[in-house]
Amino acid sequence: MGLKYFQEQIWHVSGSTLAFDAAILYETPVKGLRIGGSISNLGPDFGLQGRDLTRVSDIDGREDEYYNNDNVPIQLATEEYSLPLLFRFGAAYLLPFSEDYSLQFAANVNHPSNDKESLDLGAELMLWDMVFIRGGYQSLFIDYNANGFAVGGGLKYSFDNIATLTVDYAYTDWTILASTNRFTLGVEAAL
Questions:
Q1: In sequence order, what are the beta bridge partners of 53?
Q2: Rounded CA separation 49/9 (Å)
Q3: For the chain: N or C, fewer Cβ within 10 A?
Q4: When comparing pLDDT for 126 and 76, which is higher?
């Protein structure tokens, strides 16, 4: 489970809300097979407010007739909208060759409330229990998707079972938006 805070600000107009994520992972009786599901962005509607939505206007349009006041402050209304809910269901299968070498396959079905359903596929090769090579494809079966092919890798190093350091890199082709490079640094410590 997770709780997140969204905030958007455009000059003097802003809005914020909280959202909740929940997920479950099930280790099946089939050795190496796991299934899971999640829901993301469950929360109240989101809207914008601020002083830049206040304008001065001549409401009745009569200009100078009858000593008309043409400087009436008005407040522009913005609609509230719901956050995009995302339901995901996935499965992963780990094929171990030994304690230090394995190959894992994963598939993920996405059902967003604001777009079409899609499928993500991926694989990860683990070598020496410290080097990881990954590849996959996002948003299969969407004809207008901007993202697609992704490849990357990672390193994991443990310090005497006290702490584990991970470094990950991923490259994603975003077609018209060029490419994206992501770097992640992680530390896990035992207390």
A1: none
A2: 9
A3: C
A4: 126
Distance from C-alpha of 83 to C-alpha of 81, rounded to nearest angstrom: 7
Task: For 145-168, write each residue's pLDDT tens digit.
Answer: 777 889 999 999 988 878 999 999
Q: Strand pairing partners for 34?
A: 27, 92
Residue 66 CB partners (closer than 8 Å, separation 6+): none
Distance separating alpha carbons of residues 145 and 84, to the nearest angstrom: 17
Vertex 101: Cα angle to 183 and 90 (nearest 5): 60
Could you tell me the two tokens for 148?
Answer: 């697609």
190 or 62: which leads in pLDDT: 190
pLDDT tens profile 64-120: 666 666 677 777 778 888 999 999 999 999 999 998 999 999 999 999 998 889 999
115 in helix, strand or coil? coil
Cβ–Cβ under 8 Å, residues 101 and 128: yes
Q: Is the Cβ–Cβ distance between 55 and 32 less than 8 Å?
A: no
Sort 24 into a burial class: Cβ within 10 Å, 0-12 / 13-18 / 19+: exposed
- Expressed in angstroms, the distance from the first to the final Cα of the chain is 22
Q: Measure the CA–CA gap between 108 and 119, rounded to whole angstroms.
A: 6
Tokens of 88: 């995901």
Q: For residues 128 and 53, what is the distance between their CA atoms, to the nearest angstrom? A: 59
- The DSSP H or E segment spanning 135 is strand 131-140
